[in-house]
């Protein structure tokens, strides 16, 4: 299995506030959909509940401490990151999609980071992506996307691989 953390993060590693993203970047959403469609996606309960419904064409693995948590049909509910990894296919790329606590638990297990770096700083965020240790990770590809009429901020799509 290739375990990939996928996230859009600000310059200060901000992810969001009040269980919502702090920006609207349609091309980042397209990137996320393209990369994760057809795959297992691992997330915390609060991240799952931030979506209007289970994301289509993906298998949602939801981590929660709630023993009687009721998820929609087709979703898998587990109690820990280790369980989430165990129920995921061993011969595929599996994506961790948030939130901050789940990223913190999973970064040391990850093989790859697929990040959209939003070129702005958000001081009032309440969820952050973990610090990326440059002795463990290196950028293997980058693609800059300038701001435009649909995108308020410049962003760079970055893939990090383990050193």
Automatic annotation (TrEMBL):
User: Pathway, according to UniProt?
Assistant: Cofactor biosynthesis; tetrahydrofolate biosynthesis; 5,6,7,8-tetrahydrofolate from 7,8-dihydrofolate: step 1/1
Keywords of this protein's UniProt record, alphabetized? NADP, One-carbon metabolism, Oxidoreductase
Quote the PROSITE patterns the UniProt record gives.
Answer: DHFR_2 (PS51330)
Domain spans labelled DHFR: 2-162
InterPro entries linked:
DHFR, DHFR-like_dom_sf, DHFR_dom
What Gene Ontology molecular function terms does this protein carry? Answer: dihydrofolate reductase activity
Q: What is its EC number?
A: 1.5.1.3
Task: Decide whether keyword tRNA processing is in the record.
Answer: no
Q: Which reactions fall under this protein's catalytic activity?
A: (6S)-5,6,7,8-tetrahydrofolate + NADP(+) = 7,8-dihydrofolate + NADPH + H(+)
Q: What class of enzyme is it?
A: oxidoreductase
Instruction: Provide the function of this protein.
Output: Key enzyme in folate metabolism. Catalyzes an essential reaction for de novo glycine and purine synthesis, and for DNA precursor synthesis.
The UniProt similarity line reads: Belongs to the dihydrofolate reductase family.
Report the protein name in the record: Dihydrofolate reductase
């Amino acid at each position: 299995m290739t375990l990939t953390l996928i996230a859009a993060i600000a310059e200060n590693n901000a992810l969001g506030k009040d269980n919502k993203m702090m920006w609207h970047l349609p091309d980042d959403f397209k990137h996320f959909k393209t990369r994760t469609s057809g795959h297992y996606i691992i997330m915390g309960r609060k991240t799952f509940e931030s979506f209007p419904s289970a994301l289509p064409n993906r298998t949602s693995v939801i981590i929660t401490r709630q023993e009687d948590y009721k998820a929609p049909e087709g979703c898998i509910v587990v109690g820990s990151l280790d369980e989430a990894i165990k129920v995921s296919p061993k011969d595929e790329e599996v994506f961790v999609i948030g939130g901050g606590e789940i990223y913190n638990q999973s970064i040391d297990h990850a093989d790859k980071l697929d990040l959209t770096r939003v070129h702005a700083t958000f001081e009032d965020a309440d969820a952050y992506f973990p610090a990326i240790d440059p002795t463990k990770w290196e950028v293997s590809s980058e693609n800059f996307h300038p701001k435009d009429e649909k995108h308020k901020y410049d962003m760079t799509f970055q893939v990090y691989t383990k050193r």
